[in-house]
Design a protein that fits this description.
Blueprint lengths: L1 E7 L3 E7 L4 E5 L5 H10 L2 E6 L5 H4 L2 H7 L4 E4 L10 E2 L5 E4 L2 E7 L8 E5 L2 E5 L2 E2 L2 E2 L7 H11 L7 E4 L4 H11 L4 H15 L7 E2 H7 L8 H6 L11 H11 L2
Parallel strand pairs: 3-4, 4-5, 5-6, 10-13
Antiparallel strand pairs: 1-2, 2-3, 7-8, 8-9, 9-10, 11-12, 13-14
Helix pairs in contact: 5-6
The chain binds fe (ii) ion (2 copies).
Length: 251
């Protein structure tokens, strides 16, 4: 399998997964032009589009791609029905594609219907988990996003986190400001700063990496709790997560 990230807009990535027979999948095509260029260049035949949620920067290219490839099947959650999805999927559905199986995981929080697709070792998680951070809570609650992170955290540690935005540097800048004494975060902030200065791509990340550097996966950390003002046991397990998300919103 060949995993490719196609840069789009300011900081989006449209992911493709292709096989030896030149068949491919397209995940969250926010625009069609850069995708069509890659398909032509590699002579790839797209088999399906996978949509994670209804935002325009993830679905904007669907119509054009389906015009070019009328046989394309478009999978997505209910909220993408009017954005071109032809096959509505939800938690636990298993989709056979490219001779593999893709499991649908409901990951609400950023939007209410947001889903992710897992086919070992690939996780296409849209705007749920970013490297070093998490998506904004546009529709859902911190509790929902916390539970979505918990689900993702049950996957194998070598899972490739294929998220939809290059937000790693700003996430690490935030994480470093929150927890400056953490060596892993300091080191990764430095590494990503250098990488981005050379316009390098920081993705995909791995779950093992995120467990070390993503504060939203580390809300049990005592230093983090104390810094966020929890000198007591939080009432709910997602309270620290919620406070951290608030801090990021105003950072
Ligand atoms: Fe989004
Ligand atoms: Fe997005």
């Amino acid at each position: 399998m060949n995993l490719t990230s196609i840069p789009a807009f300011q900081d989006n990535y449209i992911w493709t997964l292709s096989d030896a027979n030149r068949r491919c999948l397209i995940i969250d095509p926010g625009e069609a032009t850069p995708v069509l260029a890659i398909l032509n260049k590699n002579q790839w035949q797209p088999e399906a589009i996978l949509l994670t949620h209804h935002h325009q920067d993830h679905v904007g290219g669907v119509t054009r791609l389906v015009e070019e490839y009328p046989q394309l099947v478009v999978y997505g959650p209910q909220e993408t029905q009017d954005k071109g999805a032809t096959h509505i999927v939800s938690e636990g559905d298993v989709i056979p594609l490219l001779g593999r199986e893709f499991t649908v995981i409901a990951t609400p929080g950023h939007t209410l219907g947001h889903i992710s697709y897992f086919s070992k070792p690939y996780l296409f998680c849209g705007d749920t988990m970013f490297s070093g951070g998490c998506g904004r809570l546009f529709e859902g609650t911190a509790e929902q996003m916390y539970q979505s992170f918990h689900k993702i955290n049950q996957l194998p540690e070598d899972t490739l986190i294929c998220c939809a935005h290059e937000y790693t540097l700003s996430n690490m800048k935030f994480s470093h400001a929150i927890l400056p004494q953490d060596h892993e975060i300091t080191r990764y902030y430095q590494e990503i700063s250098e990488l981005r200065a050379k316009n390098g791509i920081s993705l995909p990340s791995t779950l093992a990496k995120e467990r070390k550097i993503n504060l939203f996966l580390r809300t049990q950390n005592d230093d983090l709790k104390r810094i966020l003002g929890f000198n007591f046991t939080p009432k709910h397990p997602w309270d620290v997560f919620a406070r951290l998300r608030q801090e990021k919103d105003t950072f």
